[in-house]
Structure formats: structure tokens, C-alpha cells
Amino acid sequence: MKNFEREIKVREDTKRGLLAVFEYGENCPFEVKRTYCIIDVPEGVERGFHAHKHLEQICVCLKGSCEFDLDDGKQKVTLRLDSPRKGIYLPNAIWHVMKNFSKDCVLLVLASDHYDENDYIRDYDEFLNFIKDASK
Ligand code: TYD
Prior knowledge:
Blueprint: E1 5-7, E2 9-13, E3 17-21, E4 34-39, E5 47-52, E6 57-63, E7 66-71, E8 76-81, E9 86-90, E10 95-99, E11 106-111, E12 120-121, H1 124-134
Antiparallel strand pairs: 1-9, 2-3, 4-11, 5-10, 5-12, 6-9, 6-11, 7-8, 7-10
Bound molecules: thymidine-5'-diphosphate.
């Protein structure tokens, strides 16, 4: 399975705090066209349950923590985000579920394209068919 974990470049000093950098060609493999945040997720709520046909994303927990279940149609892995130093690179065609959000979780997502509902695959069987067709 692919390695989804990415180290985020940070500049930190004890007197002034932490600055996290996302730079195209450095630690971000695509030009960012959209950013969004997920915050205030109530305890026990799970989000996601979809894959994208083309979209690539980078997810970073700026505050608090959460977990990602990632599934490429063959293998599954669960990754925990609990530091702005750590990110997840989410390529297209990965079924993902976000869960175990801490109360203070601020999840930042950088996306390679504009919002397009037609790029979503929200049905798991459809996702498996998409993977199968893509490997032909
Ligand atoms: P969705 O991606 O389904 O959220 P999650 O996977 O976290 O459950 O998006 C939730 C709603 O927000 C959905 O109606 C689409 C809308 N939305 C936008 O309008 N723009 C965006 O950039 C995103 C990510 C979602």
C-alpha cells in the first residue's frame, strides 16, 4: 500500500511558536485551488465515506487530533493525525472515513481542484468498480 504520511515543514522557536508551511513542489505535489476546514465535530461522529475520481488532497490537524481510515480497494490502514508536523496525502481513488475527532480538532484540507460533486464516489460498490475499471 502507498505511504500516505507526509512530514510538514515547520519553523518553530520556543519564544514565537510554530509556523507550518505547505509549498507546491516542496511538500505539496499539486497546486492548491481550494482549502477548507473541518471543526467542532461532535464526539463519535464519522465523516467522509467517499472517494474522489480525480481530486488530490493534503490533510493536516492544526489543533487536536483525528483518525483516517484509508482504503485503496485492496488494503486498509488507519492513520492518526495529532500534530501540525504530520500530514496525510490523500490521492484520488482512496475511500476514506474520518473519525475520533477530539473536541478541539481543527482539520485543514488543501485540495487540488474546485468543489465538484461529480468528482465524488459516495457508494462503496461503485468505488470498487471504479478501481477495477481503472486497473484495466
Ligand atoms: P463532504 O465532502 O461530503 O464532507 P465530509 O466528507 O467531511 O462528510 O461535504 C459536506 C457538504 O459540504 C456537502 O454538501 C458538500 C459541501 N462542500 C462544499 O460545498 N464545498 C467544499 O469544498 C466541500 C469540501 C464540501
